[in-house]
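Collaborator request log, item 7. Partner lab (contact: R.S.) asked for a structural prediction of Mobile element protein to inform their binding assays.
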Amino acid sequence: MSNWLITACEDWLEPIYEEMKKRLCEHEVLHADETVVQVLKESGKSAQSKSYMWLFRTSGEAKHQISTTKIF
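Returned to partner:
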C-alpha cells in the first residue's frame, strides 16, 4: 500500500505542487520563513546536523493565496 501512495503522490500531487510553485514565483512580493529543524535518520547526515524548512507564500494583496513548503 505504501508503494501505491508513493506512486499516487508522484503522479498526481507532484504536478500540482510544481504548478503552485510556478504561479507563486510569478508574484512580485513573497513572504518567506526559514526554520531550522532536526531530522533523525536522514541519509547522509548525522542526527546533530541542521536541516532547513522553508515556507513561501504570496502577500496578502494577492488575489489567489498560495503557499509552499520545502525541506532541505
